[in-house]
Amino acid sequence: MDHIKLLQNPSLVYIGKLSEKPDWNFPSHRHDDLSEIVYILGGEGDFIIDDQPYLVQQGDLLIYNKGIFHEEKSSKNNPLKTYYCGIADIHIEGLPEGYITPMGTCPLIKQNKYSEQMEKLFSMMFEESSLKLKGYDDICKNLLRSMIIYIQRMAQLEEMKTKNDSETLALQIKEFLDKNYLKQLTLEEIALEFHMNAYYLSHVFKNHYNDSPINYMIYRRMGEAKKLLINTDMKVREISQLVGYENANYFSRIFAKTMGESPLQYKKNEKKERVNLK
């Protein structure tokens, strides 16, 4: 989002600062008339947003779009320190009314190079709202507008980092599959190697290689089988075992399903078309 266009002027409903309250917690709730922004100054806490848990650290930002269920709880040993504010009448071009970030995006924006500016904006806005000196409301409106722009910048950096992390993860999965494709691994066993959810792992891999991890391993085995069929006089049963299939009949069915012909048909057709000079 290169240009931020506000279709109406947002208004600051409240702003606060949480500090040194180890027993502080706020059960699950939502706001149907406003959005909320939470900036983590320090400490630890449990955040659950739309039934998903999130871990936070200093400099992180949490965005609660209008109507999103969320709950918060401070750590007793390391109490949360936060700034927070509620915003009404926010409508950014291209987003639903009451949304600060696009629908479906992660509500947690990790600390990045704009976090310091966000903290300064919160501090200034909190001070102006507390003192209520002449013209404070105009200053707060300008600070709030700046805050929204910085949130978009932070979200954009987070999106880029997530994309880069996803590409790195996909490559790591592929390297693992290339080393272990002869093993009959399940998706859950692969995911266990990466300490992550099987669905997410499959989604990341398919998004980058347009195939599932299991199918990728099958095609790698079939590629190895093709090479052995062409370049050796090994029997199908022997090749089957070498590429990870104890049952030769099952291997032949998989080969025919993926390659469009049986192993013997493939070997026969290749011999007709290939001229070996050595």
From TrEMBL:
This is AraC family transcriptional regulator. The keyword Chaperone does not apply. The keyword Transcription applies. Keywords: DNA-binding, Transcription, Transcription regulation. Residues 171-269 form the HTH araC/xylS-type domain. It comes from the Bacteria. InterPro entries: AraC-bd, Homeodomain-like_sf, HTH-like, HTH_AraC, HTH_AraC-typ_CS, RmlC-like_jellyroll, Tscrpt_reg_AraC-type_HTH.
